[in-house]
Design goal:
Number of helices: 9
Strand order of the largest sheet: 1-6-8-7-3-4-2-5
Number of strands: 8
Helix content: 40-55%
Structural class: alpha+beta
Order of helices and strands: HHHHHHHEEHEEEEHEE
Radius of gyration: 19 Å
Shape: globular
């Protein structure tokens, strides 16, 4: 594949993945998805399988049921409501799809997950140490590069962050004041590690045209509960587990994100500072 064609396909993959993520509550017919990025249905199926290492249909089905786990963790709703929020016409179809993927019913799954998280937090000894502050953020215009794989895997992540910094520099969008952020779209307690999606992001003050593997995403303004981790990034999952078990706010629809306040290149590991922003009402 020629380089320019490959860049076009990468951009289209970004567009369709972001579209699916934002529209899981809607019907996602193949023809509509193909029309959205101006390719044939056959092309769409081919480029998505190549990028995701699974079929488009499998990806959408998996995203729906995995998103439902997030909703079950954060909000009480009927099975009918839950099914509608992830694009199913009725609770029976949703339950069937959920059991096909996870092997058990939604109720059994969420009870087992909560028990597992309770065990993680209890064993960590940090259950009582959770502190947060409230802040308001304006719209955040981010440039990102996507990583699919185990969270924190050194080679993948180092390569992606280096590429992002180079892309920003090439577009005169990098400075000492640039804010670097990360968006984890999947919970490794729910999603297989090799399928976890992470966006390495930078806040930009100018309009940048997406190119190749680089995309743009906007986080809408709103209120956040903010938690701070001091130390190695390896402690992030423990903190997320703790937040999940001890969350005292009402969530609003939006994306959680991390902000890295200093660089691992010139900061001791024990002095690294990371903030986790959880959208709340």
């Amino acid at each position: 594949m020629r380089n320019d064609t490959e860049e076009i396909y990468r951009r289209k993959v970004n567009q369709i993945i972001d579209y699916i993520s934002a529209n899981l509550h809607q019907p996602l017919a193949l023809d509509k998805l193909a029309d959205h990025i101006y390719v044939s249905q056959r092309q769409l199926l081919r480029i998505m399988r190549s990028s995701l290492n699974e079929s488009l249909f499998s990806y959408v089905a998996r995203q729906r049921v995995e998103r439902s786990v997030l909703y079950m963790q954060t909000e009480k709703m009927s099975l009918t409501q839950l099914a509608g929020k992830v694009g199913y016409d009725n609770p029976q179809s949703f339950s069937k799809a959920f059991k096909k993927h996870f092997g058990i019913s939604p109720k059994t799954y969420i009870n087992e997950l909560q028990a597992k998280l309770e065990g993680y937090v209890k064993s960590s000894g940090n259950r009582q140490n959770l502190q947060s502050e409230i802040c308001e953020e304006e719209d955040l215009e981010l440039v990102y590069i996507r990583i699919i794989g185990k969270y924190g895997e050194s080679e993948l992540y180092n390569t992606a962050w280096d590429k992002l910094v180079c892309f920003l520099s090439d577009n005169q969008a990098y400075s000492e004041k640039t804010r670097f952020m990360g968006i984890s779209f999947d919970d490794p307690n729910v999603t297989k590690s090799e399928q976890c999606r992470f966006y390495a992001c930078a806040l930009v003050q100018k309009k940048i045209v997406p190119k190749g593997e680089f995309g743009t995403i906007r986080l809408r303004k709103g209120k956040y509960a903010v938690y701070t981790l001091k130390g190695s990034y390896s402690g992030l999952q423990e903190l997320y587990n703790n937040i999940s078990i001890n969350f005292d706010y009402n969530l609003r629809y939006g994306l959680a994100f991390e902000e890295y306040l200093n660089s691992p290149h010139n900061t001791k590991e024990e002095d690294l500072l990371t903030k986790i922003f959880i959208p709340i009402k």
